[in-house]
Amino acid sequence: MKIMCDTNVILDVLLEREAFVEDSYKILKLCEEHKIDGFVSASSVTGIFYLVRKYTHSTELA
Question: Would you state the pLDDT for residue 11?
């Protein structure tokens, strides 16, 4: 199965957003275990970096 991960799925895990972190983590874990093929768009990568940097106030963490 192939899935396209929305930016919010990645952010839920990275920023530990309470309402969704568990479900989002399960999706990413399935991708890591090669049980599903997960993809993210190239434009999402820059958006994820920007938002993680904004919320953590750290370029290193982002």
Answer: 95
Phi then psi for residue 51, to 5 deg, are: -70, -40
Q: Which residue stretches of the chain are H helix?
A: 7-14, 21-32, 42-56
Distance of CA 32 to the CA centre of its chain: 12
The total of other beta-carbon atoms located within 10 Å of residue 57's CB is 8
Instruction: Enter the pTM of the model.
Output: 0.83
Are 62 and 49 in contact, with CB atoms under 8 Å apart?
A: yes
For 35, half-sphere exposure in the C-beta direction (CA atoms, 13 angstrom radius) is: 6
Query: Which phi and psi (to 5°) does residue 57 adopt?
Result: 60, 35
